[in-house]
Each structure stands twice: as C-alpha cells, then as structure tokens.
C-alpha cells in the first residue's frame, strides 16, 4: 500500500467537502448556533470564526446513502470512528475520543455512557438537518470533555407560515439484508410550529469483503443491529421571545462481535445467522431526552435559557448456555442526567460585544445488573464563562475564558455475581471522591487578506477528568479479551492546541488548509502489563504527557465552464505520540484521502439526475500503541446514481442506486476493535433508496 500512501500525500491538496454540496449549488452555511453560544456575534459568517469548523448537511449526505451516520461523518477530514461491528461506532476527532469528545443535541450536552469504547454514539439522525464538527478543544463553549472537539446536532425549525409537509425515505442494503426507513412531518403557523420524525434501521450480520471461504463469503457473526427512533419538536415564536420543547426516544439493539472460534462452539452449525433476532452477547439501550429551549429579547441584547433531562437505560446480555439464543442479564446501568444553560448576549450587530454564561451538569449512574463493570457514581459540574468578540473591518477577534468546578463520586457497589478470576492484584478502592477546578481559555483571530481569502489562527484549551471506569475498574471487560485495572490517583487531562488555517471561498470554489499541534498533559490511556489472569492479558489505566500533530485540507469546485461537474475530496493526516519517546497513542487513524466527481444532468421528464464516483485511499498505519497491531493501507470505490423520475405530480419521488466497496475489498480499519480477532469490514454493499416528499 505504499502506492496508496503516495497517492494520499501527493493528492492531499485536492481536498473538498462533498457534504456542503447540493444538486445545483454549493451550500453557504446559515448563521450557526452552538447550543446557547450564538455565532451571530461574529456577524453570522463562518469565515469570521477563528476555530476550525466542519459541517455535514444530512439532506445532502442522504444523496449518497450509507448504513450508519458515523460512516457519513467519517468522510470528513478530522473525523474517524472506533468501530465494533455493524451498529457500534464511536467518534474520533483529531485523534481523541471517549470522554474527550462532547456530543450536543436539542440545545443540551448529551451523555450516554461515553466512557466505553464499545458504546455507540447514541444519537439518531432522525429529525436533524445538519451536524457541526468543532475540531479541537472547545471547553470554553462546552465544558468537560471537550479536548478533541464536539459534534453538534441541529434541527432547523419550520419557517413562519410554512405549510405542513413531510417525507418518507426507505433504503435497502444487500450486504446486511438491511433496511433503513425514516419519515417526517412538519409545519408552522404565524406563531406556532411543530416537527415529528421517526426512523428505523434493521440489519442482519454483514458479510466481510474478500474471497469466498468454502464457497461462501465470510460472515461477521453477531454484527446485526436494530435501531428505532422518534423525535418531536413544538415551539412558539413571539415578537420578543421564543420557546421550544423537544423530545427524543432512541431504542438500540446492538450485537457484539466476538471471536468466531467461540461462535463455532456455541453454534456449531452456524445456521439461522441471517435473521434479525438478537442473540447474546448484545446491548439493549434506551435513551429518552426532553429539553426546553427559551430565548428572550431584552432591548438589543438576548437571554437564552435551556434545560434538559436525559435517561439512558443500558442492558448487556451474555450467553447463558450452549444454545445460540440463550442469555442472561450481565451489566445493566441506569444513567440520569440533568443539564441547565443560561446565557446573556450583548447586541450582536455591534463590532464589539460579549457573551456571558453559566452551565450546570448533574449525573447519576446506577447498576441493576448481575455484573458490575463500573460502580455507582455521581458527577456534578458547574461552570461560568465569558466570550468577547471584536470585528473591526478586515479583522475578527474572539477571546474567551471559563472556570469549572467538577466533582466525581463513586460508591461501593454490591455485585450479585462476582467474577471467579480471583486475581491476586490489589483492587482499586470503589468509593472515590475527586474534585477538579479547571480553567480554560480561547484566543483566536481571522484576518481577511482579500474578500475571499483569509488567515485564521486559534489557541484553545480543553480538559477531561478521569471517568469512573478509569478510576475504579477491576475485572474482565466483556468483548475486549482483557482484564482491566483502574487507578484512583489519575489526574485530570488538559490540553493546549494551536491551530493555523488559510481559507479561500468565492462563488463555487472553496479551499481551506489547516494545521494543528495539540499538547496534552496527563493523557489517560490503557497500557498492557506483563501479567495475565486466566489467559486474559492484564491492562492498567495510566497517564503520560502526549502530543498530536496533524494537517487537514479541503477543496471543492464546480467550474463555471463546466457547471454539470463537481469535484470534491477530503484528506487528513495526523500522528500522536507519548512524550519522551514512550511510544505512540492508541486509536490514531490512518492518513486518508476521499475524493470524487459528480456529474449532473436531467431534463423536464427525468429531473436532477446525478452520478457520483467516489474513491477513498487509506494509508498504512505502523505507528501504533503497545496493544495495537499495524494495519495495511487500502482503497475503496463507491458509486451513486440518483434521479427524480416522472412519477405522479411535481416530481416528488427520488430514486438512488448505490454500491459501496464496489470491488468487494477485504480491509481492516485501523480503529476497528474487531480486527484483532480477524473480522474485517463489510464487503460489497449494493442498494436502492426511494424517497417521496408531500
């Protein structure tokens, strides 16, 4: 794969953002809202924002279907995914993940057991219109855990007077014999508006890429998953105030892939594997979120108050015997979270202004299963921040500071069925109380050399306290083939990242080059020891100073002389190391280049025809952590064809034919958790998506 690596390095300047394109024009982002922090303070222009920002338009992304949302996000230069099968994907932003990345939706910070590498992102695409990716530390805006960045989910509310309208989309996927279905209805009067959305995903075990084995394509056993989502929004717009209530329910049944040799023992015939019924081990996760968003106009300033309650019930089932469907409840957790955000913003139309805010976060995690992976715990965070902006002509300045009080409390927790390992190592205390008072800041500037060309520079900090798994774990971590030991004395991780960017945007041309250096003190990671317990390798949670350096570049163009053609690509490269020559960091993605071309055509009968050829190259990854194995590079090819056919009135139908991994390549993602047991990623996947708007 040296050729692929050379292609990536030679072509990295070809980057673009297919996610910001529509069928006819490039999308110019609207004024951005980061939870309660309104970037309208910077005149509503993304080009005035000094920190690194990417965006995924979900409507546009739907024109190139994928099985899962994280597969779409992973096409961005800064984003990758830690995968553990068909339905479990955890985001990585610039080499950081878990509780180092913040998720936000419905105006509040989301948390659904983000400490574990085998927990999914837990936020459905249903109802959301776009996702902003903040690349790099942003603790001033989001508080705890925003060392790597943030994923911010948005739903655009119906416009005043918008007539009731809706849509239905369904897609079928050959590889996993799967179906994705989503539907929505929305509308608005003069002052009131509403939106309702549902989604369903149901997939059997996927087939791995590569040659057939004994006449059959190899299957990824227990990679099946079924997700169901509902989301509703209702709001009132008055002259000087807006009130909105949101509710979301997400039900996930997620298969956990284990060693095929174990599967052969539990299910010798390997029959009935292409059904949709879950079999242990698997996760049953339910998440309820209700939130309130309120905005008041006070003279020429604005006051925003958001509050939310989240309830996450997670159950993990393990096999109870030799039967393929036998199970018993192993780990089970109830996680309740309450958040509140209060913010005051001065007149955003003035060249200079301030934003002042306070945030509160409370969380309680409680066990009710037979096994205890982490003890019962409580977390409280209270923070206050201030942002100052100054926009004198060609120069934009943004500065902010934040102070938090963060408390982690764990408790001695009864274990109904203790493990039988009887390890001789000392166990960390289960009752732990740790307090942290972190200070964060942000200082950035944009200088517009010309109207389309600007230079961006930003310096920002973030922090993440050790989570309760890192502090107290002691025992086998299911699905990981390791025995983990926590450390009660872990310190808070804190980083300082410097970003430098050059951006160009004019008409239908966009280019941006970004480079960053992230210095992390007390980076927390899992390291293998020389010990073992009953054939399980012992791993110890540790920490050491680290550095991550990277480069990202985006370019997109639709030439005036050839407006039927769009050219796009995404590329990124990074490297993470423990300082003092102590080795490489885990979960550092390989260098990647995603590039392609879209051709637009159509006539009065067959409207909005497009065909997209997409090529993705991933370099080999040899700079690996102590417990990781190196990964060879690979290339993938995807094809998409879409059209609005002359069916019914108004061309309301949309048909999309697609094929991912056209050449059925067998490959291993470096950030896959199942490559160590020989399970590769999905092979060829052809499908059809049908949509109807009304």
From TrEMBL:
Keywords: Cell outer membrane, Membrane, Signal, TonB box, Transmembrane, Transmembrane beta strand, Transport. Residues 261-662 form the TonB-dependent receptor-like beta-barrel domain. Residues 1-20 form the signal peptide. GO terms for biological process: siderophore transmembrane transport. It comes from the Bacteria. This is TonB-dependent receptor. Gene3D superfamilies: TonB-dependent receptor, beta-barrel domain, TonB-dependent receptor, plug domain. The keyword Transmembrane helix does not apply. SUPFAM superfamilies: Porins (SSF56935). GO terms for molecular function: siderophore uptake transmembrane transporter activity. It is found in: Cell outer membrane. It comes from Flavihumibacter solisilvae. InterPro entries: Beta-barrel_TonB, Beta-barrel_TonB_sf, Plug_dom, Plug_dom_sf, TonB-dep_rcpt-like. It holds the Pfam family Plug.
């Amino acid at each position: 794969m040296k050729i692929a690596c050379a292609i990536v390095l030679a072509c990295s300047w070809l980057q673009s953002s297919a996610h910001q394109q529509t069928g006819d024009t490039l999308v110019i982002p609207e004024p951005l809202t980061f939870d309660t922090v309104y970037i309208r303070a910077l005149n509503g222009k993304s080009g005035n924002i000094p920190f690194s920002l990417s965006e995924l338009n979900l409507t546009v992304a739907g024109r190139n279907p994928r099985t899962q949302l994280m597969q779409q996000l992973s096409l961005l230069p800064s984003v990758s995914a830690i995968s553990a099968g068909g339905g479990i994907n955890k985001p990585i932003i610039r080499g950081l993940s878990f509780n180092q990345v913040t998720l936000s939706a419905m105006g509040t910070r989301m948390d659904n057991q983000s400490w574990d590498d085998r927990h999914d992102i837990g936020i459905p695409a249903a109802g959301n219109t776009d996702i902003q990716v903040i690349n790099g530390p942003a603790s001033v805006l989001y508080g705890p855990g925003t060392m790597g960045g943030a994923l911010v989910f948005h739903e655009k509310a119906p416009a005043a007077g918008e007539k009731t309208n809706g849509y239905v989309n369904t897609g079928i996927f050959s590889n996993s014999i799967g179906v994705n279905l989503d539907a929505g209805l929305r509308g608005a009067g003069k002052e009131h508006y509403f939106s309702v959305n549902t989604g369903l995903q149901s997939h059997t075990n996927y087939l791995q890429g590569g040659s057939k084995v004994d006449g059959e394509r190899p299957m990824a056993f227990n990679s099946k998953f079924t997700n169901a989502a509902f989301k509703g929004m209702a709001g009132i717009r008055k002259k000087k105030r807006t009130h909105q209530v949101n509710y979301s329910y997400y039900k996930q049944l997620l298969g956990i892939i284990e060693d095929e040799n174990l599967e052969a023992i539990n299910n010798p015939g390997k029959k009935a594997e292409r059904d949709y019924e879950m079999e242990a081990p698997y996760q049953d996760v339910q998440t309820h979120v209700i939130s309130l968003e309120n905005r008041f106009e006070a003279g020429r300033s604005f006051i925003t108050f958001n509050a939310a309650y989240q309830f996450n019930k997670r159950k993990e089932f393990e096999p109870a015997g030799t039967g393929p469907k036998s199970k018993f409840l192993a780990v089970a957790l109830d996680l309740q979270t309450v958040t509140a955000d209060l913010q005051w913003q001065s007149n955003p139309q003035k060249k200079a202004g301030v934003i002042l805010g306070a945030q509160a976060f409370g969380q309680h995690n409680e066990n009710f299963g037979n096994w205890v992976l982490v003890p019962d715990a409580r977390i409280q965070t209270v923070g206050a921040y201030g942002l100052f902006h100054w926009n004198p002509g060609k120069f934009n300045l943004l500065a902010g500071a934040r102070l938090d009080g963060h408390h982690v409390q764990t408790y001695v927790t009864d274990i109904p069925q203790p493990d039988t390992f009887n390890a001789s190592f000392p166990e960390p205390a289960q009752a732990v109380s740790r307090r942290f008072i972190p200070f964060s800041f942000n200082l950035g500037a944009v200088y517009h050399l010309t109207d389309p060309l600007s230079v961006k520079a930003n310096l920002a900090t973030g922090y993440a306290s050790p989570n309760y798994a890192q502090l107290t774990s002691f025992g086998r971590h299911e699905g990981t083939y390791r025995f983990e030991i926590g450390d009660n004395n872990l310190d808070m991780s804190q980083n300082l990242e410097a970003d430098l960017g050059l951006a160009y945007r004019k008409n239908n041309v966009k280019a941006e080059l970004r480079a960053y250096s992230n210095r992390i003190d007390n980076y927390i990671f899992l390291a293998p020891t020389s010990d073992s317990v009953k054939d399980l390798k012992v791993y110890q949670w540790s920490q050491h100073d680290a550095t991550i350096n990277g480069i990202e570049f985006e370019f997109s163009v639709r030439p005036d002389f050839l407006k039927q053609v769009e050219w796009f690509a995404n590329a990124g490269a990074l490297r993470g190391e423990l300082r003092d020559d102590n080795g490489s960091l885990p979960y550092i993605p390989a260098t990647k280049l995603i590039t392609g071309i879209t051709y637009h055509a159509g006539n009065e009968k067959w409207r909005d025809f497009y065909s997209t050829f997409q090529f993705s190259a991933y370099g080999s990854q040899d700079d690996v952590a102590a417990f990781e194995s190196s990964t060879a590079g690979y290339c993938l090819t995807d094809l998409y064809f879409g059209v609005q056919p002359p069916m019914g009135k108004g061309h309301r139908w949309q048909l999309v034919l697609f094929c991912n991994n056209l050449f059925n390549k067998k490959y291993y993602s470096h950030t896959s958790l199942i490559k160590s047991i020989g399970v590769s990623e999905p092979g060829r996947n052809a499908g059809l998506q049908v949509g109807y708007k009304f």
